[in-house]
Amino acid sequence: MAVPIYIPKLGMTMSEATIVEWHAAEGAFLEKDGIALTIETEKVTWNIPADAPGFLHILVGKGKIAKVGEIVGQIAETNDELQALQQKGPAAAETVSGPPKTETGRAEAGTGAADSSKPQKAAPASPAAKSMAKKLGIDLSLVTGSGPNGRITEQDIVKYNENKSETRITPLAKAIASDKGVDISGIKGTGDRGKVTSDDVRKAAEPPKQDGAPSSGITVIPVTGMRKLIAGGMYESIQKTAQLSVFNEVDVTGMLEFHQQIREKYKNTEDARVTHTDIMVMATCRALKRFPIMNSTFTNDEILLYDWVNMGIAVSVSEGLIVPTLKNADRKSLLEIARERKALVEKARDGKLLVDDVVGGTFTISNFSMYNADGATPILRRPESGILAFGGIKKKPAVYRDALAIRSMMVVSLTFDHQVTDGAEATQFLKAVCDYLENPSLMVL
Asked: In the chain, where are the structural domains located?
């Protein structure tokens, strides 16, 4: 029986996922525990291994969205079973709940209804015949034996394989070739043992490129995976919120001195490495407790205020930008924030974040001071109502205690949803954050 490949539930809020990539072509052989496909949800990618060895049958293609529990592919034990699955054609999406497990803990393919046609029991076969059938992916129950008492011999396997390999092409590829008038005899198959696949036929049907044709000078980059999710999320945010940004320049000389004191005190403690970002997280949490309207969500006819702060922290990764969430950040000490933030960043850059690590945020900060940019107008991460961006720290002449001095200055910008609050309260919140950064000792009050 074919073994299903289904979309697992990776987090409490996960309901669907996008198929990012199949790591094997239709009909290709998969080893047990080899990576079958990669899915993505909430900008988290996850590799799904094969639960059994066999031949891959893809039900949901790359770039498509599938629900949790939906069967997106199947692993056939033999080539004959694979061809039977392919001939069934596309069917309504099946789902598994749980998923159902066998005694070995492996999910079994659902049939939807009772199947009255049980597989025929294979006749006895010689060891050599069994070995050859396994290598060729042949179901022994479909082979007629010519030996004593119907015993299947090695020659029977050779004969069966020759008869069935006259046309090494998948049913879908055959249908496309017929529709497009493609001669399959000249196509070199890329499927299992040279089988012609649908992609091979489509490629053969493409018109040949003319030599010397002028280049358009345009490079096309497909928008897929994380970039597609970022694009969709940012566009939706702009469309569904009334965003306004305000700025403030703050003297962070005190924050830098505070940071240096902590580094000196805990220089021999590996898990107590506090960064500027950790201080920014704590300062933001303290300000949010004073201005809870900024820690909220706007719905059609009400505003939801949260008693907790789940702080989203923007992290740059090779594929784009991801925002893991530091849960209950307002209830943590500075050292706890530092340890947990570091762990989240490492998981993000190693591609090991789970869905629960990136959902449930109530407010977000983005520290891009390392990029030497003065400031920014960050875009809200719905359904949150506020996001702070911290710019580069630069030494400048500034008035300090009624005298001109060289101070470390930084631009802090706040984008907020004008549907939730107005400029007066938003700017007061921004000033509170800046006050904490200017004088971190205030955070203990």
From this structure: 3-88, 127-200, 244-444
Lowest-pLDDT choice from 73-82, 99-108, 330-339, 372-381: 99-108
CATH T-level assignment (fold) for domain 244-444: Chloramphenicol Acetyltransferase (3.30.559)
Q: Is the dihedral of CA 192, 193, 198, 202 positive or negative?
A: positive
pLDDT for position 133: 78
Which pLDDT band holds residue 37 (cuts at 50, 70, 90)?
very high
Domain 3-88 belongs in CATH node 3.10.20.440: no
Positive or negative torsion for Cα 190, 194, 198, 204: positive
> 132: closest CA among 157, 99, 97?
157
Q: Which amino acid is at 125?
A: A
Mean pLDDT, residues 62-69 taken together: 89
- Reference 16, options 70, 62, 93, 59; nearest CA is 70
Retrieve residue 46's tokens.
């996850």
CB of 78 closer than 8 Å to CB of 138 = yes
Overall pTM > 0.90: no
What distance in Å separates the CA atoms of residue 69 and residue 74, rounded to the nearest whole number?
A: 13
Smallest CA-to-CA distance from 57 within 137, 135, 140 is with: 137
Q: Distance between terminal CA atoms of the chain?
A: 66
323/279 Cα distance (integer angstroms): 18
What is the total residue count of the chain? 445
CA-based torsion, 213, 218, 221, 222: positive or negative: negative
Phi, psi of 44 (to 5 degrees): -105, 125
Whether the predicted pLDDT of 120 surpasses 60: no
Q: What is the CATH number of domain 127-200?
A: 4.10.320.10
How do residues 156-183 score in pLDDT, each as one tens digit? 887 777 665 555 677 677 777 777 777 7
